[in-house]
Fold this protein.
Amino acid sequence: MEMGDTLKLEIWELIGLTMAGASASNKLLSLGTKIVAVGRNYAAHAKELGNAVPKEPVLFLKPTSSYLQNGGAIEVPHPLESLDHEVELAVIVGRNARDVPQGTAMDYVGGYALALDMTAREIQSSAKAAGLPWTVAKGQDTFTPIGSVIPTSMVKDPHDLELWLKVDGETRQKGSTKDMMFKIPFLISHISSIMTLFEGDVILTGTPPGVGPVKAGQKITAGITGLVEVQFDVQKRQRPNSS
């Protein structure tokens, strides 16, 4: 075998290993039973919506049926005209976790991902005013667009990542995970003291400031600088024909 052939073989082996690793990582995501989202984890975001800065994490649940793979289309349900974008670092749980101490919490992280927490702000505002849950505003199909799982080995410090989001090429959000008020070890410990986190569950760690509306026909691109980029179209949800 000539040197050129050897190099080609090594390259294809590397590609195969990379694809296998990505497949295994994304299989991890498919195992999850729930998405635990953390609200108001960036002080500047809490303030931009007129909310008090929380003294402990504000938690809510989203169903895994709200996932949307990279390249898919976010659907704006009738009769809404827009949804708000919120870019977030997702933490994927690597093994079952219950009553985990902060000191060992990072051992339970199986990977990371870039995710969006799409929000029907009008519905959320009405629910909040009435003291009702946010499920309808946060949990509809396509309301959790998410990229491929990033292995922990590729993330040197999850508390020093730049998150960004653009709409039609215009920067809307740019912030650092350094500004999270409740860090990942605390979140894992706190959440696992309330409910068991299963392998493949996702924690959405909150969004930096700059959230805003997107409408049908627009395109969202978002990413973690130096690691990943995702993109999603926005469209109106097609209403089923009534019989």
